[in-house]
Amino acid sequence: MPEFIAANFAWFLASLIILVGVFLYGFADITRLSVGRVWAIGGVCFRDAIRRKVLWVTPLAMLGVVVVSMLQHPVDQPDAIRQTIKFCFFASGLVVTIIALIVAATNLPRDIESRVVFTIVTKPVTRLEIVLGKIVGFARVSAAMLLIMGLFTWGYLHLRAWYLGKQISWTLASPQLDPAQREWLQHFEDEGLLFSQTIYTPVRLAQYSDIQNSSISKLFILGGAQDAIATFVIDRSIIDDPSLAGSTYRLVYRIPYQSAPKLSPLPAGVPEPHPSITTVILNGQADQTLVSPQQLTRAVAGTSDPSAGIARLDLPNPGVDIPTGIMSQLANIGTFTVQMIPSSERYLYEITSDPVALQVITPGPDGQPVVRELLPKAPPLTRGSVGRSGQQLRSAENGVEPLAIFRFLDVQKPRTINGKVPFELKVGVDRSAADTDTGDKTTLEITVADRVKGKHFSEQPVLVNVENRRTAFFTVPAEWIENDDFDVVIKNRSPNSTVGLIPSSVLLVADREPFVINLLKGLGVLWLFSLLVAIIAFFCSTFLSWPIAVVLSLLILLGRWTWMQLDTGSGFGAQVANEFAGNNPGLARVVSGSVDALTSGFNLITSVLPDISPFGIVEQIERGSTIAWSQFLPPLTVLGLFGLPLIALAYVILRNKEVAP
Amino acid sequence: MTAATELNPGVSDSINPTDAAVYTRQLTKIYSDFWGRPKVRALDSLDLTIQRGEVFGLLGPNGSGKSTTIKLLLGLIFPTSGEAYILGKKCGATDINSRIGFLPEESYLYRFLNGEETLYFYGRLFKIPHRDLKKRVPLLLDTVGLDAKARKRKLREYSKGMARRIGLAQALINDPELILLDEPTTGLDPIGTREMKDLILSLKQQGKTVILCSHLLADVQDVCDRITILFRGKRQTLGHVKDLLQVKDITQIEAQGLTPVQIQELRDYIRRMGAQVQITHPTTTLEDLFIKIVRDQTGGVGSYTSSDA
Predict the structure, then answer these.
(1) What's the pLDDT score for residue B289?
(2) Pick from B100, B104, B113: CB nearest A118
(3) pLDDT tens, A234-279?
(4) Which terminal residue of chain B, N or C, has fewer Cβ atoms less than 10 Å from its own Cβ?
(5) Partners of residue B126 in chain A, C-beta under 8 Å
(6) Contact A124/B110, CB-based, under 8 Å?
(7) Can you give the C-alpha Rg of chain B in angstroms?
(8) For residue B243, with 0-12 CB atoms within 10 Å meaning exposed, 13-18 middle and 19 or more buried, which class applies?
(9) What architecture does CATH give domain B3-245?
């Protein structure tokens, strides 16, 4: 298959179905298409749904929202409004989806069952007009429901915001209020509780460590606190090539290390730990563990003397041997990542561009081994150790300063307030018992590095106090963010706290718009989703009874998402085999092969099902993030790729269907 | 005699598929089960030609293939073999539907619409301009005898007779050339039945073709020019009603004002000629008697409108 077609296979398949189904097979019906007839059929379909009292579901949904929001236990007023937004959108989405599903799945079977279809198809109405008319009718039903739910959401949220705003004012009037709490509530007093703002999220979060007061510009990671991952791409030839027969495989490290500059003394009798690297091999696509450290055999231990300061782990290379069976599995998967976890926080490990290589060691004709080396496809990424709240960022210790780097890219000129650019910061905080007792704050130091200018604005850092999982607000001078490619650099200034970070922990607030516009956009996305649901349900109802059509529609809608949740990436067979038949190589092979075959079959099936993730906007609205107009494109693409071909297929089926029962 | 007249007695042998209102050859429909195995032969090699402008009756007991024939002609189901043309075009062509009116055996209509809305909806399917519909809808409702009150009521509140009337109105909304009526008098009272028959005759006078499908033989006899009788999916007979019903070896003489003595003389005279004779007084039909009584009660009004369920 040509690469261009393979890359755009979904588009080609969708276009082919539409072209053959509608434009070739149904060309005559295209020429006869009448908007008036389509609208008339849509109108009757709409009235039918209204007569079936589907709109009565909306007061029930509203009542549900009111009751649930009364029973909620919010942390504070902003949290209360966020939860209410979530309930409102959840209820709207649920109601409109269920109604679209049931109305669309039952409409045509009911028309056929009641034989009303006799008086429709014996008029000069084409089957294409019937299909389109029905879809228009369903779309009108969904729009009516969303309009009602939208009006309720708008009214109820404003009522809640007014009441919660009053509560904030009363709280701020109290003189005993904690300053951090006051600062937090004042923000909402000033800005309001209902808002929608354009937000930029970082493209990547990395961590590495600096040596305090040092001019060394090397990339270090701190042992016990940070790690590095490198991605390899290989294929079967590494195993199958006859010239490589009898090879062994080894991961070798070239990681210089050095002791932390200001080492605190160890308790008496405790020996200085030895620097070492623990290896974990992960699936390149699914980021799950494929090979645990126990499955690898240590080739040569590091033997250098750490007390010598900066010392290279010279040859013989310390590394690990990968058993041939495991290597074969990795070759099947094609892409895998090597996670290098350095030990002991008393050492810094330098990460160069090629800290690890995969060696294929083949016995040579003269008895000397021939060594071929494969390097990672890109420089490694350095990260913090992953804890409960994300990558953990420690405070400076032993003269080493861990840094978290949030990289922002393609940032359009943000709005400034008094020459400052606003940011939001939400982190997890783990405090030691001592810190909890003293009530110390957790303070982060924030600076910005302009990648275009190559300048780090580190002279006057911004200090921000953070609470666990509560958004903090800070601003930086506008001149720090003059270019669209920059890093926000964060250091932890609280010795007894560890901060958990995820890529979206730091958000740049670029612009604001009225909440009602965001609400309308959200309802628009929900409406597109209801259209997809209605099209799928109607398609199923053209050849199935309505209860079966409802079930199949749900399978089509949720199949891909559910499969994705199961997280069965490449190597799943090996994992299952390892768990259930680890001691029996023959059985393991059979289990692994069977599971892999089943998995790839399901992968194929679910790959042609619609991806409903572009319709998920509730979280975005809930946190006050503006829905960009460009965000309508992915849902529209799903509708185009999946909805239009289904309409074409429904038309073809209906045209060949005997509508007389 | 040519093949055409053999197959269709009473039809000129010059007829061809494009001239006829309906033309079928070897039209067969076999219903299959889920696995595609033949289950029922509902219609078996039907040859039929219906001329334009005639009132044609399709007769037969339940399950004889009448409704199957209608459904095949309208494209609701597809033939297993054979061919069928309607107004010169292959059955199932959508565009021909603009010249056809169809009243199904029961009024299968949207029951949440009222009478007027129903006609506006079907009118829009024919792309009849709104201003024309505003004139045509009240006229049609008058024609089928639905009064102003009934027009605004939802169809689910209609009696069976009223539902037949609105069903007929929707079949006529496009002023069709060919009207297929499946059991048109079902659910109608005798006066409604008479009005329906009068309407069919008036449609014939307007030059329209009417195909009537019924097992109420008296209705068919009153209005049809020609009939065919189907049984077990096969055509059993076809021809003009008069020809088919005529008993050729019996002569009927009608006379008015004879005295009993004159009647006796007449009987004796015929016996002397060697023929058997039976003299009785003719009776009217129950339908005529019913209509006479109702019309006498309503002061001789020819029609009554229907508004009560």
Answers:
(1) 66
(2) B104
(3) 888 888 888 888 888 888 888 888 888 888 888 888 887 777 778 8
(4) N
(5) 123-124
(6) no
(7) 23
(8) exposed
(9) 3-Layer(aba) Sandwich (3.40)
Same domain, residue pair A453 and A479: yes
Is residue A603 assigned to a domain? Answer: no
Q: Are residues A294 and A411 in the same domain?
A: no
What residues does CATH 3.40.50.300 cover in chain B? 3-245
Full residue range of the structural domain in which residue A110 is found: 34-173+515-565+630-655
Same domain, A239 and A379: yes
* B31 in contact with A, Cβ within 8 Å: no
Is residue A101 situated within a structural domain? yes
Question: Of A333, A352, A384, which marks where a domain is finished?
Answer: A384
> A598 falls in which pLDDT band (50, 70, 90)?
confident
Q: What is the DSSP string of B228-262?
A: EEEETTEEEEEEEHHHHH--TT------SS--HHH
Of A368, A384, A400, the last residue of a domain is: A384
Facing A37 at nearest CB: one of B95, B104, B125: B125
Cα R_g (chain A), whole angstroms? 30
For residue A186, being part of any structural domain is answered with: no
| A459 shares a domain with A440 | yes
A573, part of any domain = no
CB pair distance less than 8 Å for A119 and B108? yes
**Cα(B114)–Cα(B137) distance, integer angstroms:** 12
Say if residues A121 and A130 touch (Cβ distance below 8 Å). yes
Interface test with A, best of B91, B109, B110, B157 (most A CBs within 10 A): B110
- What ipTM goes with this model? 0.82
A458 and A363 part of one domain: no
* Residue B13 confidence class, pLDDT cut points 50, 70, 90: very low
Same domain, A79 and A142: yes
Number of domains in chain A: 3
Conformational region of residue A269, where left means phi above 0, alpha means psi within -120 to 50, and beta covers everything else: left
Q: What pTM does this model have? A: 0.77
Sorted by sequence, the CB contacts under 8 Å of residue B70 that are 6+ apart come out as B58, B102, B180, B182, B211, B213
A390-427 residue pLDDT tens: 999 999 888 888 999 999 999 888 888 888 999 999 99
DSSP A641: I
